[in-house]
Amino acid sequence: MKATEVVPALAALAQENRLDVFRLLVQAGPDGMAAGHIADRLGLVSATLSFHLAQLKHAGLVTVRRDGRSLIYAADYARMNGLIGFLTENCCRGHAAMQAAACAPVPARKARRRETSART
């Protein structure tokens, strides 16, 4: 992923509703989810959701396909992994031993627990 692609992706994810939508789509898997279901799950009105989905699509983070009368949105996992790869490609200056400890992905819930434990 190029730096010129990373900035729009990070900007799109920097808004709370869009981040919630993207995380929901990641959880939904490659089959995606109809826009109406997304709206119901997140409590967003359709106009607001449409705006946020358009921003995510413009940033290349989601794909959309028509299924009858429904628009089905799905996370673009290749772009998501490209973004994560871009952010971590120079982690620990390439030192394998340091990377194993410092750069191992941790699910968000576990990371929050670690941060809370470290503060107390």
Describe what you observe in this structure.
A hairpin with a 2-residue loop joins strand 2 (62-67) and strand 3. Helix 1 (3-13) packs antiparallel against helix 4 (46-58) and helix 2 (16-28) crosses helix 4 (46-58). The protein has a three-stranded antiparallel β-sheet. The longest helix is centred in the N-terminal third of the chain and has 13 residues, at 16-28. It starts with a helix and ends with a helix. The chain has helices at 3-13, 16-28, 35-42, 46-58, 77-88, 96-102, 108-119, and strands spanning 33-34, 62-67, 70-75. Helices cover 63% and strands 12% of the residues. It folds into two domains: 3-79, Winged helix-like DNA-binding domain superfamily/Winged helix DNA-binding domain (Arc Repressor Mutant, subunit A, Orthogonal Bundle); 95-119, no CATH class. It has 120 residues and is mainly α.
What value does the average pLDDT take? 86
Write down the CATH class of the largest domain: Mainly Alpha
Percentage beta strand:
5-15%
Return the CATH architecture of the largest domain: Orthogonal Bundle
Largest sheet, if any?
Answer: 3 strands, antiparallel
User: What is the number of E strands?
Assistant: 3
**How many domains in all?**
2
Which structural class do the helices and strands define?
mainly alpha
CATH fold description of the largest domain: Arc Repressor Mutant, subunit A
The SSE order reads HHEHHEEHHH
First and last CA, distance: 38 Å
Q: How large is the count of helical segments?
A: 7
CATH homologous superfamily caption of the largest domain: Winged helix-like DNA-binding domain superfamily/Winged helix DNA-binding domain
Cα gyration radius (Å):
17 Å
- Order of strands across the biggest sheet? 1-3-2
